[in-house]
Amino acid sequence: MEKATSEKKSKVSFWEFFQGLGKTFMLPVALLAFMGIILGIGSSFSSSSMIDVLPFLGNPILQMVFRFMSSIGGFAFSYLPVMFAMAIPLGLVRKEKGVAAFSGFVGYTVMNLAINFYLTETGKLADSDHLREAGQGMVFGIQTIEMGVLGGIIAGIIVYNLHNRFYKIQLPDSFAFFSGARFVPIITSLVLATVGLVIPVIWPFFAKIITGIGFAIHKAGIFGPFLFGSGERLLLPFGLHHILVSMIRFTEAGGTAIIDGKEVFGALNIFYGELQNNLPISPSATAFLSQGKMPTFMFGLPAAALAMYRTANPSNRHKIKGLLISGVVATFVTGITEPIEFLFLFISPLLWGFHVIMTGAGFMLMSLLGVTIGNTDGGVLDFIIFGVMQGSYTKWWLVLIVGAFWFAIYYFVFKTVILKFDLKTPGRDKVVDDTEYTDEEVNYSHKGGFDASGILAALGGSQNIESLDNCITRLRLVVNDGNKIEDDKLKELGALGVVHLNDTNVQVIIGTKVTTVRNALEEIL
Predict the structure, then answer these.
(1) In whole angstroms, what is the distance from residue 468 CA to residue 474 CA?
(2) Best exposed site among 149, 321, 450, 488 by fewest CB in 10 Å?
(3) What's the CA gap between 21 and 298, in Å, rounded?
């Protein structure tokens, strides 16, 4: 019995940790996406091709403003590792979050100081002209091993574990001042200093693993982007897709490039680096970025929504229109796809498989056509800022051509499958209660759109909630008993879907107002 309990706790810890880890990635990535837009606008309006088209942009004052935007936009690209080191403990711990983030910064800095000490003492510190060849770089003025984002992730995970173990510690009276939360950055500095001495010894092994993953993807040739795009959609229901995405965007698995004399890792880092330095954009980098999402996100999923609307009972269409429109706006503008995807994910594995394959095919086709549109979201903002505004070399018009085909294919397949298998997509029930698919359910109520008390009751009550968090569109919960959760009731209250990862880890897909729902639940709790 004790062994079974231990195994259950181990599984809970595994799921809770990895779904939480994926969520923490979104904090720095969200900033990176916004800063990327600033960088994209600044670089596009300061480019010579744009000035040739619009000569007034050549005004010295305007050009100074655009260069300023490019400089500020490059901030997140330059300091991404330390942001991960701070965001991971901040997002994962449940108490004293501020201390956890502070300790993340301390740990990351101390770790690099220790690496520098090891390299200096062993005579392995490269001279300034050969940093790249030696796999070394500069972090806050410290010469260290170039680990990129993975270094920040390592520091962040270690700090998270140290925080959970020591933030309540009570030291003897003589040292009582250093007890509790104050002890976390202290123990962090000691442990990460030791880690910094070990990393130079074991880092070549980790580097080979990451390079191997990247080699496998790139060895797949034209199928590399397909595997990435399909894999990301396959992992999405479990909330683990962020880990794959971050590996490709920020580590050697997404490629390497020399930019301004420095070695840069990861597809997104390469794209931002080239954009910031007005260099030609690498198609091998953008093959894993926004362009691959655009056929599906901007055209395919809206077509799926239209098919669901057209196949709904005519008397129910006005009741589901708001639900579908809000989902289309989310995917078309911001690249948030879950409000549409979770309308068919649990109803038809066949449609989900089709969607997974088409998403991967979109990545592959954009790469084959030589499109070079970067950034993260895959919506119309990325299309305009990083495609149209960057000039004709991005081949942005091919997105529209391919998108038209994607729209037709998605509409035909969804309509055919829904009708042939009589799928109960929204509005296809013969009798739909007046409260279903109202504006409240799709986030337009002046009260926030959701009955928090009803949702809490459907989750088994406050006594069933072990922990509560959220990502962009879903509540992430650890509960005492997953069997107490009423999935159908949650859907009646506006949830788009419920994912049971195991007996205690559950995700409730809410939509873009998930933060409002979480805050309301926390107030009740």
Answers:
(1) 11
(2) 488
(3) 28
Question: Tens of pLDDT along 277-299?
Answer: 878 888 888 999 999 999 999 99
d(CA 254, CA 273): 14
Q: In what order do the strands lie in the sheet with 497-500?
A: 465-470, 474-479, 505-509, 497-500
Which residue type is seen at 387?
G
Distances (CA, A) of 211 to 81, 138, 251, 267: 18, 21, 9, 13
Q: How many CB atoms lie within 10 A of CB 346?
A: 16
Residue 272 token pair: 């931002």
What is the b/e burial string over 74-103, where b = at least 16 CB atoms within 10 angstroms of the residue's CB? bebbeebbbbbbbbbbbbbbeebeebbbbb
Considering the segment(s) 452-524 as one domain, its CATH architecture is: 2-Layer Sandwich (3.30)
How many Cα atoms within 13 Å fall on the side-chain side of residue 313? 12
Coarse DSSP helix, strand, coil percentages of the chain, rounded to the nearest 5 percent = 65, 5, 25
Q: What is the H or E stretch that residue 63 is in?
A: helix 60-73
Residue 389, amino acid:
M
* Helices then strands, each counted (H, E), the chain: 23, 8
Residues 438-463 have pLDDT tens digits of 443 344 333 446 788 888 888 888 88
Using 50, 70 and 90 to split pLDDT, how confident is the model at 7?
Answer: very low
**Per-residue model confidence as pLDDT tens digits over 38-75:** 777 777 677 666 676 678 878 888 888 888 887 887 77
| Residues assigned a catalytic role | 471
Structure pTM?
Answer: 0.64
| Pair 414, 308: CB distance under 8 Å | yes
Contact 359, 277 (CB under 8 A): no
In Å, what is the CA distance from 417 to each residue of 10, 237, 311, 342? 41, 21, 10, 16
- d(CA 328, CA 2) in angstroms, rounded, equals 49
Distance CA 208, CA 205 (A): 5
- Can you give 387-398 as a three-state secondary structure string? HHHHCHHHCCHH
Q: Token digits for 100?
A: 């956890």
Bridge partners of residue 475, in order along the sequence: 470, 508
As a whole number, the mean pLDDT across the chain is 81
Note whether 392 and 281 are within 8 A (CB): no
Q: What is the per-residue burial (b if ≥16 Cβ within 10 Å, else e) of 393-407? A: ebbbebbeebbeebb
Q: 400 with 409: CB under 8 angstroms? A: no
Please state, in angstroms and as integers, the Cα–Cα distance from residue 133 to each residue in 126, 158, 318, following that order: 9, 29, 63
Q: Which helix (H) or strand (E) is 311 found in, with range?
A: helix 301-311
CA–CA separation, 67 vs 71, rounded Å?
A: 6
- Give, in order, the Cα–Cα distances in Å from 121 to each of 117, 136, 427: 6, 15, 70
What's the CA gap between 18 and 28, in Å, rounded? 17
β-pair partners for 479: 465
